[in-house]
Design a protein that fits this description.
About 65% of the residues lie in helices and about 10% in strands. The protein is α+β, with helices and mostly antiparallel strands. Helix 10 crosses helix 13 (about 255-315).
Length: about 400
């Protein structure tokens, strides 16, 4: 691919003077334009190096492909003189001229909170999978590997610690990410997450053989529960903390602000977390998990088939960005001995494979050389989990593969 030429073609098609800002993600140029109607859509559709285009959330997105888009973006910046910005900055610029409905705004918030912590969750999940090789019976004989070779049990013990950490201390990860999203101090967010998953509280609750402890406040008994692995309570608690911190920053000044804002923020946030936020939203989290498990147990393959049929349209709207929140709840419920684990990921994987199969079908049916090249690369990309080229560049374009 001639990156300079592709960038030049894109600039010509959208209009150099029409460009406001631009960034890129794994596969796409994400452009903010003054007027989308000025785009020469036919030129982009006929460009052999452009896998497809679509508009979403005030951004005109041009699909180039993984491994190439970053080079094309660098050339675009070089040829236009635009300032290089991040995808988050582009979202903010686009949002200024694009009013988002409340549901999409909520989904966007969840996405911005969860996307940064996904690498930690992926690492923890893969470490669990590796550890299962050591612990599972029947893989290498009737007994597990650590039963056959006790001298390697230490490896399994270490992997258990490494794999459990991101999930046990989920409130800490969410505390950092949520505080960043809402403009609070990330270290205070982490501190609040540590309070919710405190080792001392975990040990005390375990010794008491119940789910909460009684803290005596002048005769009023506060039931303090641990919130390890919790998602919704942690997000709400840190969101409240951010508002409290901002209020103190606004009303306290100089050295008083520096000293007392963190102190008062953590005292008030901590009390509200254990007295109100944790109990209420912990119950909400349980309802969500139980509802999803009930849906899976009740409808079984039929329900998952319906979900799978709607998964790609959900991806097109961007609503899938909220799924990590619910997947984490399902995983934590499974670790606690309830439910069947993360069936959302399984359905999503099957939907991705279906998009890949549809793209490959176009490859075998078409005689157009550009379409053959696009559909084959899009199909391979979809097999690897990146479905945008297949969805937007092939299947939606020809309509019938998406049915």
């Amino acid at each position: 691919m001639d990156y300079a030429k592709v960038a030049s073609d894109v600039i010509t098609a959208v209009g150099k003077d029409n460009l406001v800002a631009g960034a890129h993600c794994a596969t796409r140029l994400r452009l903010v334009l003054k007027d989308d109607d000025k785009v020469d859509q036919a030129a982009l559709d006929n460009n052999p190096d452009v896998k497809g285009t679509f508009k979403m959330d005030g951004q005109y997105q041009v699909i180039i492909g993984a491994g190439d888009v970053n080079h094309v973006y660098a050339e675009l910046i070089n040829q236009t003189g635009l300032k290089e910005v991040s995808t988050d900055e582009v979202k903010q610029i686009a949002a200024q001229g694009h009013k988002q409905n409340p549901i999409m705004a909520f989904i966007k918030i969840l996405s911005e909170i969860f996307v940064p912590i996904i690498p930690a969750l992926v690492a923890g999940g893969l470490l669990m999978a590796v550890n299962n090789i050591f612990k599972s019976e029947g893989l290498f004989g009737s007994q597990s590997l650590i039963a056959q070779y006790p001298q390697i049990s230490g490896i399994s013990d270490m992997l258990t610690v490494l794999a459990d950490a991101p999930f046990i201390y989920m409130p800490v990860l969410l505390g950092i990410s949520t505080a960043k999203r809402f403009g609070g101090n990330q270290y205070l967010g982490a501190a609040l997450g540590l309070m919710m998953s405190s080792q001392e509280l975990q040990e005390a609750v375990a010794k008491a053989a119940k789910f909460s402890l009684d803290w005596n406040f002048f005769g009023w008994h506060l039931h303090a529960a641990q919130y390890t692995s919790q998602v919704i309570p942690a997000i709400i608690a840190v969101w409240v903390m951010c508002h409290i911190e901002k209020w103190f920053h606004k009303h306290l000044h100089s050295a008083v602000d520096f000293t007392f804002t963190p102190l008062l923020t953590m005292i008030i946030s901590g009390f509200l977390t254990f007295a109100l936020i944790g109990p209420v939203f912990g119950q909400v989290s349980d309802w969500v998990a139980n509802g999803l498990v009930w849906l899976y147990d009740t409808l079984g393959f039929l329900g998952m088939g319906i979900f799978g049929a709607f998964y790609t349209p959900i991806v097109v709207t961007g609503l899938h960005q909220s799924f990590p929140a619910f997947e984490t709840i399902l995983l934590n419920s499974y670790k606690a001995g309830h439910g069947s684990g993360d069936f959302i990921f399984v359905v999503a994987s099957m939907a991705n494979m279906a998009q890949a199969a549809a793209a490959f079908a176009i490859f075998f049916l078409t005689k157009n050389s550009k379409t053959k090249g696009l559909s084959s690369s899009a199909g391979i990309s979809a097999l690897l989990g990146i479905t945008e080229p297949a969805v937007f560049g092939v299947n939606l374009k020809y309509r019938f593969p998406s049915v």
